[in-house]
Amino acid sequence: MIRFNCDYSEGAHPRVLDKLIRTNFEQTAGYGEDPYCRLAAQMIKDRCNRPDADVHFFVGGTQTNLTVISAALRPHQGAVSAHTGHINVHESGAIEATGHKVLSVPSHDGKLTAGQIQRVYEEHYGDLNHQHMVQPKLVYISNPTEIGSVYSKTELTAISETCRKNDLILYLDGARLGYALCAEGNDLDLPAIAELCDAFYIGGTKIGLLFGEALVICNPKLKEDFRYIMKQKGSILAKGRLLGLQFIALFEDDLYFEMSRHANRMARLIKEACIRKRYSFLVPSNTNQQFPIMPGEVINKLALNYVFEYWQQVDDKSSAVRFCTSWATELKAVQQLVAEIESY
Amino acid sequence: MIRFNCDYSEGAHPRVLDKLIRTNFEQTAGYGEDPYCRLAAQMIKDRCNRPDADVHFFVGGTQTNLTVISAALRPHQGAVSAHTGHINVHESGAIEATGHKVLSVPSHDGKLTAGQIQRVYEEHYGDLNHQHMVQPKLVYISNPTEIGSVYSKTELTAISETCRKNDLILYLDGARLGYALCAEGNDLDLPAIAELCDAFYIGGTKIGLLFGEALVICNPKLKEDFRYIMKQKGSILAKGRLLGLQFIALFEDDLYFEMSRHANRMARLIKEACIRKRYSFLVPSNTNQQFPIMPGEVINKLALNYVFEYWQQVDDKSSAVRFCTSWATELKAVQQLVAEIESY
Amino acid sequence: MIRFNCDYSEGAHPRVLDKLIRTNFEQTAGYGEDPYCRLAAQMIKDRCNRPDADVHFFVGGTQTNLTVISAALRPHQGAVSAHTGHINVHESGAIEATGHKVLSVPSHDGKLTAGQIQRVYEEHYGDLNHQHMVQPKLVYISNPTEIGSVYSKTELTAISETCRKNDLILYLDGARLGYALCAEGNDLDLPAIAELCDAFYIGGTKIGLLFGEALVICNPKLKEDFRYIMKQKGSILAKGRLLGLQFIALFEDDLYFEMSRHANRMARLIKEACIRKRYSFLVPSNTNQQFPIMPGEVINKLALNYVFEYWQQVDDKSSAVRFCTSWATELKAVQQLVAEIESY
Amino acid sequence: MIRFNCDYSEGAHPRVLDKLIRTNFEQTAGYGEDPYCRLAAQMIKDRCNRPDADVHFFVGGTQTNLTVISAALRPHQGAVSAHTGHINVHESGAIEATGHKVLSVPSHDGKLTAGQIQRVYEEHYGDLNHQHMVQPKLVYISNPTEIGSVYSKTELTAISETCRKNDLILYLDGARLGYALCAEGNDLDLPAIAELCDAFYIGGTKIGLLFGEALVICNPKLKEDFRYIMKQKGSILAKGRLLGLQFIALFEDDLYFEMSRHANRMARLIKEACIRKRYSFLVPSNTNQQFPIMPGEVINKLALNYVFEYWQQVDDKSSAVRFCTSWATELKAVQQLVAEIESY
Predict the structure, then answer these.
(1) How far is B121 from chain C (nearest CA, A)?
(2) Res. D122 pLDDT band, cuts 50 70 90
(3) For an engineered disulfide with D179, which of A84, B151, D288, D293 has Cβ 3.0 to 4.6 Å away?
(4) The complex's ipTM?
(5) Angle CA C226–C227–C232, to nearest 5
(6) Alpha-carbon distance B234 to B237, whole Å?
(7) In order of start, what are the domains of chain D with their CATH numbers?
(8) Global pTM?
(9) Cβ–Cβ of D231/B132 closer than 8 Å?
(10) pLDDT averaged over every residue in chain A
């Protein structure tokens, strides 16, 4: 069986692992207060063109999301999210467990629009009894979204302006950020994201690290006492340097983008095979996740040799499935899958 | 200005107030451990035909809801609610503040159906990654709903069976329960509700008390240590007897239902006037809340003499508004309103 | 049996009740947005000489405490309290349920000192790993304390200066504030308290109201969005005017202080009887709570005719008990108790 | 500078790291549902002689503690802990952030006794108003404690019996468990601990892993839906196999105990040097942490060449410091330190 079910089936890219091996016997301070974390943070700030940002390293995405949102909001405030947002669906109520409502908004492609955000804002304050309702205060978006779509610079700029006009915090979940930044047609880069968002994270777990997410806090108001809240949520790794070292490996050359481009290319081969078979897609994607809609019998046959994710039923005969690629996906494996897709 | 904007514009029914006056100088134990609370609890158990139930008295509805849900659920469990449910919209995130997600379900009339509940259940457990999602565990319904509709015995029985089959807790918010039980066409009564629900409350604040809600816990699993959690949430009134005394006034004769019937009759006069004017309604209601859809200019004229609630825009020219009656609504005031409605 | 076990055994002072009776049929807006609440708030601001303060009305003390603390603190911050503090002992973990640690400090008389607060502050920031510990941010004191002692102006001024120097919030729980302000030897008044504290409440439940506490927020930083958090915690009373009306009764003449003085006088008679019998006291008190240490057999005999609270064992033969008086305590009843104490 | 300040200054034991390297390119399922996690869990169950236990893997100790306690307790229940307990002091309020009070008990050596636990229990239920106080429900102990002391089998048995008699949950934090089990004089082993505790964890972060703690749940009542709560708290590692693989390395031979014994031996050399210098100790310890009390000038001199932790001032001239050893501590480094200690 070959796995296309997610982008974290293997360990880490060898250059990442190598960093850990070569420093294994060094002694450093714990809790991220070591030279490697400092260097990694500096590299990220440089890449983002934000010398004033704060960078914090986390082990995983749910932790990052719940720590940021808990740190940013007062008790009566909520996070606006597309209904497909990870925090709304797949974190077992992590945000609510910190006391905050997720104010979910319908979305057909996983993205929020500036107009939707403006409407949520106006509907709240337009109600005389708004103090009886959760106050929208933070906007949560993912790029790429949970279903593979990508924000354009125009879209993100409009969202950012809407947030700033209304004193809303814009937070971008970049669990798979590299795949978005390397997607065909993308016009965003790290400096633009750092400019437009109050905080965002650069995901590593799903792009070649053993684990690790680098949170970048751009808005000074979100910086105060942040490490207290990380500690409280169990988000500070004792041997914090493991995170710093891995991010150094990502950014000391172009490894982060190199791996992202590879995964996107592999995904594109799958996409093109599906197009040739005239399969439609749940949502258009130029990133490492593809959601073709396939007849049930094809799905069943493919499932004999490949692991991929069943997503949702579309009609009586067809369902959407997810194929996911990563830095470790081999061309040979993709070619074998593509051949099989085309053969049915 | 005459108020039709809610059912808590006045103080209490004189027979309720009289109870407080006549006992004012008596000395009793605090925190609801007095003879009046015991008597009131017994009267309610008798009315519900549930000698085994536990009855607890609260000052308000939000407190009741948040205490019950916090006591009933483990951290990863959520409350299923119609998207119009009070806990989902108008409690400023009170449920989330206790750590739990409200799993909202669309509803056109404010009610949930057994089928919807079954679907929520199946969709959760049908997903291989269900441990990454909030577990549906409690079903929250209101009767009457926030928009005036009423459950039939058939509907509530189906919901109850669905909940028991799937080990879900059924909790009924009865903030305006009397209005439902006295509504034209209603076929539910207190014993049936006590039989079908795991817990529910009989609302007093909106039916003639100064304040007060009587929670009836039927399911023994929900009883353990309940008063600890009441205390923790600030839900135990020091001079608890004030609650017992008021509920004695409600149930020592038929006052609760007498007041509810009066309010429903007054609301019906308004409804009939709207029907005569061929206004349609946001949702059909036989209870004390009416939601006619009126032209903007009519609304503006009525607003000169009456206080009522703007509900939502329906189209370019018309909006739904809410008229609300209570035990204290005078026939004369309604007749004046009706005449004015008919005059435009 | 005559009750001396607490100060909330009866209903309300007749002048308080009368306010509710005379306004019972008036229509007003709900949720505290009525003219009576506005008037009561104005009267309290006048009494405190703080036209800029915000005043909010609550039903009970636990609710007030948990709402204020939840509104004031970020997740990693805690409330410093004497270990005898109500929030540390008798609120079933209400503060922790909002996510905050109570940082308890030993105290022999129920009071905190400026020196203790300074030490807590320095110990926290003196530790290199202070981000691994709860940050002290709010100081909770009660006046009178839970065991009847009273802060002097000198003491409160020193505490206030320590808090301001260290950017700590000073919050005073005034559940029985009147008894402190009318105690023999007291030199504090409402304007001084309003000047020295960031927020405090004037308790009514334990001084002659059916229920009610008036929170005074002096520090502008604590005002923002406060009503959202009240609603979230279930702390907004639907018929809010009941609170406004009762506080008008307290402050339109000197009723609050009149009742407090009466209770203190009654308590003093009990205290003097104990002194004549050479009983010592758990803690010296000039307020309405007295904690004499009595031989077990005396306690047993008194318990045949009076309800009072067993407090704690002191040695093999003796225990401290609590006698509590109120506005409703009759001289006749006290004289009977005093005679009996002296007879053993 | 040589670090003796903690037991997590280096990476991982080479045999641990090797496991990760050799499996790096394998594809497995995520979230701990892979064969390596299953194997590691089985090995641990075998070692504990508890085929019925559930084993879950976490990245860090704070996460483990907060997840277990949040999963085990209802909202009104608290965790009894020595005041020196990690959850009471060094987790930034992690337990309170999940809503629960830590009920701290004074302890001179970091340990709780069965008698203390019984007293907490009796004091709670002995109070008529116990529903106004946090209910003690879980007992948290650490072995070794935060200050290096170790429970004997007799002590732990007495604690366990007290807990079972009173229906309290016994949870043991084993962040450094290996050091206790290999300490001179220890008579506990994994099967005994599994027999006596309801849940405990075997710490890896501080004993030779990159990171990782293995929670063993023995009491079936604590098992239900545990993974939901792990996910909610951000405690499930995406590439969960990294945890399984590391624990296989610990237990496929005696590596866990081998490393613990080495660290204890190194610590003993430091201890003996201090004894020779007639330094006393804050608390007697046979584990990898030593807390000698040294004159200030000696501390200052040692601080020029070694990193160790300042613990607390003892008198005008002396303070307690902490020296900590690990699997990676080299004999040569210890000999150098010992020589220097003896030279002053």
Answers:
(1) 28
(2) very high
(3) D288
(4) 0.97
(5) 105
(6) 8
(7) 2-7+255-343 (3.90.1150.10), 14-251 (3.40.640.10)
(8) 0.97
(9) yes
(10) 97
